[in-house]
Design brief:
2 copies of one chain form a homodimer. The first copy, chain A, has 6 helices and 2 strands, in the order ααααββαα. Chain A is mainly α. The first copy, chain A, has a two-stranded antiparallel ribbon. The radius of gyration of chain A is 22 Å and the shape is elongated. The two termini of chain A are 22 Å apart. Chain A binds a DNA duplex (23 and 23 nucleotides) through helix 4.
Chain lengths: 170, 170
DNA sequence: TATTGTTATACTCTATAACTATA
DNA sequence: TATAGTTATAGAGTATAACAATA
């Protein structure tokens, strides 16, 4: 799926579909396309907006080179210091293998540290370093700027409605 | 970003945030995590739902081994026969390089064919083959089943509201 | 035996660049 | 010179499997 906005010739799912053979010939080559079935798929539109939002996030956070997944991990470590990799990974649905590599990178930047957990020596307790705490302050500021752009993109009321809808689903 | 559902200790964006140091010690290790800032990010929730929806799509279409992007391309070719690769790619925001590979795969399955465009010999006109048309009928049926599951997951009214919101944004 | 974290592999998707053949 | 399509490469993200240390 992808990201283009369907043209105006929308057809709601459930309405009759023109057969392929009955397509009118294109008057010009710049004709808008028929998105057909796609207009009835929630996933298509979700994906479209999600890509646009992440794209802005990545661009806005580019000065600090922080990606959405890294941001979510830093926020969770900051708000829940001392928790294990498995706890953070499960909460964010990040594979432990992938999280291990990501934390290695965040450790290389000296934003986080792993300490031996006293109760279970298999697991690592995660903390922000002082450097990481300072970086996160700047990151939060850029992330807030991103979210302000989302208000402009989506509209304040629509964003709040969307937030409520998405939060409460499932 | 990722996909877990935040626990109940939500904090709206704009409300004061507990500092990391003031976290209560964990009574047990199964404690719910504080998602903090993430609760105010539309992108976080969008991503969460989008991943869940695509995951169901992929599982539902697995018998025919069709992924979301392939589905969207097949639908667009079916509804707009004879259009060029660049037209389809721009409409769906798929890189021409990636679309070329995807079409190669769809051609290998004998679902689509490329014919020389009479007016511009650089471009290829795309069509479903007869095999592709038959396959798409089955694909549509599974995709419809997927969308029914989405109604169950999201709720009928919420899905319609979401569809309208997402469709009209931008 | 099961779990935590690590390393490795493979596949999808995204982003570029370089190339060809046409225009 | 620009555009349509192709090929190649590299980076994220995802999904597995195998392994060591520990429970």
């Amino acid at each position: 799926m992808a990201i283009a906005k369907p043209a105006n010739n929308q057809r709601r799912s459930g309405e009759p579909r023109r057969s392929a053979g009955s397509q009118l010939p294109d008057a010009g080559q710049g004709q808008a396309l028929d998105f057909d079935e796609l207009n009835g798929h929630i996933g298509y539109f979700l994906r479209r907006l999600q890509v646009a939002v992440f794209s802005n996030f990545i661009r806005t956070l580019a000065p600090l080179d922080v990606r959405p997944a890294q941001y979510s991990v830093l926020i969770l470590i900051s708000a829940n210091p001392g928790r294990s990799q498995s706890a953070i990974g499960q909460a964010l649905n990040i594979e432990r293998a992938r999280l291990a590599r990501m934390l290695h990178e965040l450790e290389r930047r000296e934003w986080i540290e792993r300490r031996a957990a006293p109760d279970d020596r298999r697991s690592h307790s995660l903390f922000l370093t002082e450097t990481g705490t300072k970086a996160l302050a700047r990151i939060r500021s850029l992330a807030a700027r991103h979210e302000e752009r989302m208000v402009e993109l989506i509209g304040r009321d629509r964003r709040l409605l969307l937030l409520d809808l998405l939060r409460e689903f499932g």
